[in-house]
Design a protein that fits this description.
Helix content: 25-40%
Structural class: alpha/beta
Distance between the termini: 56 Å
Number of helices: 22
CATH superfamily of the largest domain: FAD/NAD(P)-binding domain
Shape: globular
Strand content: 15-25%
Number of domains: 4
Radius of gyration: 29 Å
Number of strands: 35
Strand order of the largest sheet: 31-33-30-34-32-35
CATH class of the largest domain: Alpha Beta
């Protein structure tokens, strides 16, 4: 057999919590041949709970406190899917997400965390800021930095509420020198219920010294808004109703589970959390595991704490590995007591251990050392062993039929068009048709597609093909489609239809069908958005995944926008930021932050359809799309065809987040050196800016470059920005025409 990993089992991790991050790294260091791993997470960055108080107090920055999941997945050879899980079907082995097809699994692990319980609040839930999810909470805190609020209420007297109160007090009243009054509402008789008396004494003393009011035995029932004030109606000491007003309210009570779990078919406890056994398997299905806040170990109920999630990482990895290899699982028993270090916000910590309490600045530095050591394992990812080993695992993992398929892969040749089996293709097309309510999939059964051309129109046709640069086939399909259609929009054509060419890696039949379905779903999703029909295509087996489209459009002959119509004095407008080649290169080298890649894909997926409509409104004379040859390469084509010279305002050229950091490290696209050939048209510049390489960076699904009369340019750009092209900018001007001496001035 070939020495590569041929997937026959899909292992899916739903959620990017602590235990999943640990398990993923362990699988990367100790891979199992035949297993394809996918991580689904709503956010690219997952916070480490132990360092969040320090982040809020201002002692750490964002990157120090967050695990970059996309970075981890790239280094670990794991397929990362950014999406929100909305349900699980254990019988059909599917995880359902928002706005994309369901993901198939053979083995599933759930670690989606929890959110503060708002059930006690009968009205005014929209007026509070829940501390979770952290991705939504942190931006709100950053907004408060520049707000003139004076009074802050924190609801929740547990460790989370207390640490929030102390950290935000230090942030606002010390670092930012504000004068904020903070009040803490606690439903229990005393704060920190579950910690020992000595700890409570120390914390109460600190709260009093820092002028943080504590309302014990106070259950907030209603919140109303009047004159920009939020009024808290609460039951005090079980009977007395009281009301206080605040500018902002943060909710940090005990945890609650996701509502969709009730209909999942998984066994839950009374609070709605997934019940698991000591192997971390759900009680309902042996192939589904659950860890972290979302789970409860039957007979070993513990507080929802990041400590337990971290401790479950290694047992989760071990038991999933054993389950896949059909080995006996190992029981995990959570400890009853653990050392807790409470962060007081001012580089001072209190340790809680059984009935003992001790405190000091030295404890804060001990905690910082422990936390930073934990985070280093996710920040230093190079050198992980993700080379799969082909051995007898396949005999253990696969059915006899699948094992024979795998053994025969090396015998497959390129004859018969190297086609994917017709039955498999028909199954995928059938699944696509079930979701196709608008008739986008209109594949004819003849040998070739036939369509009519409207009267007085011409066909505009283009073709593009990509080898996979991202593990998510659905995302690849969307980007490839957006990129291919851009050529038609640049010429002013209305897209009509598309055909696809897909290369599928060798794998077991079920995994191959699922990969093709995900890839085709991404293509169809984008085609639907653009109102383009799919009329045919070709699939073949390949050493790696690839995707291409031939796209057809119609246009009236006198409405074609060409590269050769630049006019002297016109302004040059770019609709998207540059830098996709640099960011994708950094991602392949595990040097890109996940949020840079996320932003890069958001830009790539932005269709040029609306921009093309605006171009027509302003009667653009010349246009092209910026793709593989980079800005200077494609502008060179326009200048040559139009016999013009141009000047660029370098500081006005938009660029993607993370480009400067990548260039500092010397990261460039592999096509950069080839594109440097276009540098010959640039008039000599004495000092090249640091960002100079961006001029030659090849773009995937890049923006349009259009020429417009300068008196209309500002209105044109403003309309583009209003339409969602927030990076649209006037980047230069045509300065001379009817010249054979093609030059570009910077």
């Amino acid at each position: 057999m070939q020495n590569n990993n041929i997937p026959i089992i899909d292992l899916v991790f739903a959620g990017g919590g602590h235990s999943h991050a640990i398990a993923l790294k362990m699988f990367a260091m100790n891979p199992i041949a035949g297993v394809r791993i996918t991580l689904i997470s709503e956010n690219v960055d997952t916070p480490y709970s132990g360092m969040l108080p320090g982040l809020l107090a201002g002692h750490f920055n964002f990157d120090q406190c967050h695990i970059d999941l996309r970075h981890l997945c790239e280094a670990a050879d794991v397929n990362f899917i950014q999406g929100k899980v909305v349900s699980v079907d254990p019988l059909d082995n599917k995880v359902y997400l928002v706005n994309r097809p369901a993901i198939h699994f053979d083995v599933l692990s759930i670690n989606i965390g929890s959110t503060p319980d708002l059930s006690a609040l009968t009205s005014g839930q929209e007026l509070v800021h829940p501390v979770k999810p952290i991705a939504k909470f942190l931006p709100k805190i950053n907004q408060l930095d520049n707000s003139d609020f004076k009074e802050l209420a924190i609801v929740g007297g547990g460790a989370a509420g207390v640490e929030l109160a102390l950290s935000l007090d230090y942030r606002f009243n010390n670092k930012l020198n504000k004068s904020i009054k903070i009040s803490l509402f606690n439903a229990d008789q005393e704060i920190l219920n579950g910690h020992n008396k000595n700890v409570r004494i120390k914390v109460n003393d600190i709260l009093q010294k820092r002028n943080i009011s504590v309302f014990n035995q106070s259950v907030v029932k209603e919140i109303s808004l009047k004159d920009d004030k939020k009024y808290l109606n609460f039951i005090h000491q079980n009977s007395l109703s009281a009301q206080n007003s605040f500018d902002e309210v943060i909710w940090a009570t005990h945890a609650s589970a996701a509502g969709w779990l009730k209909n999942s078919g998984l066994k839950l406890n009374e609070a709605g959390f997934i019940e698991v056994n000591n192997n971390l398997q759900t009680l309902s299905y042996k192939n589904i595991f659950a860890t972290g806040d979302i789970s409860t170990i039957q007979g070993h109920e513990r507080a929802k704490s990041g400590v337990f999630a971290v401790r479950q990482g290694m047992p989760l990895y071990e038991n999933i590995k054993r389950f896949i290899l059909k080995q006996a699982l190992k029981a995990y028993f959570p400890q009853q007591h653990f050392l807790s270090l409470l962060n007081c916000g001012n580089q001072y910590s209190i340790a809680s251990w059984r009935n003992m309490a001790f405190s000091g600045k030295w404890l804060w530095f001990v905690k910082r050392f422990i936390d930073q050591r934990f985070m280093q394992q996710f920040q230093q990812l190079k050198g992980m062993n993700n080379n799969q080993t082909i051995d007898e695992h396949y005999r253990k993992l696969a059915t006899s039929e699948t094992y024979q398929q795998i053994r025969k892969i090396s015998e497959r040749c390129g004859g018969c068009g190297a086609k994917v089996a017709g039955s498999l293709l028909n199954q995928v097309l059938s699944r696509l048709s079930q979701h196709d309510k608008d008739g986008i999939v209109a594949i004819q059964k003849d040998d070739a597609a036939v369509f009519n051309i409207p009267a007085n129109h011409q066909i505009v046709q283009s073709i593009d093909y990509f080898r996979s640069f991202i593990a998510d086939p659905y995302l690849l399909g969307q980007v490839a489609t957006t990129h291919a259609l851009s050529d038609l929009y640049a010429m002013g054509a209305k897209p009509h239809s598309a055909q696809v060419l897909i290369g599928l890696p060798f794998m077991a039949r079920e995994q191959q069908q699922e990969t093709l379905f995900q890839l085709m779903s991404g293509i169809v999703h984008k085609l639907k958005q653009e109102q383009v029909i799919l009329i045919g295509g070709h699939t073949n087996e390949s050493l790696e995944m690839g995707c291409g489209l031939t796209v057809n459009g119609f246009i009236k002959e006198n409405e074609i926008t060409r590269k050769s119509s630049l006019k002297n004095g016109q302004c040059l407008v770019l609709t998207k930021a540059l830098g996709t080649g640099i960011i994708l290169a950094a991602n392949m080298q595990s040097e890109a932050k996940g949020r840079w890649v996320e932003n890069c894909f958001t830009t790539m997926l932005k269709s040029s359809a609306r921009a093309a409509e605006i171009l027509k409104k302003y009667k653009i004379t010349a246009c092209t799309d910026i793709t593989g040859f980079g800005l200077v390469g494609h502008l060179s084509e326009m200048l040559t065809a139009s016999k013009c010279q141009a000047k660029l305002d370098f500081d006005k050229i938009p660029y993607l987040q993370g480009v400067d950091d990548c260039l500092d490290k010397g990261i460039l696209s592999s096509l950069y050196n080839e594109n440097l050939a276009y540098e010959s048209i640039i008039e000599h510049i004495s000092q090249k800016p640091l960002r100079y390489p961006i001029l030659f960076d090849p773009q995937t699904a890049g923006g349009l470059l259009a020429a417009i009369d300068c008196e209309n340019a500002r209105d044109f750009v403003n309309e583009l920005i209003e339409a969602g092209y927030e990076d649209a900018s006037i980047i230069g001007q045509v300065i001379k025409e009817q010249t054979e001496d093609i030059k570009l001035f910077i």
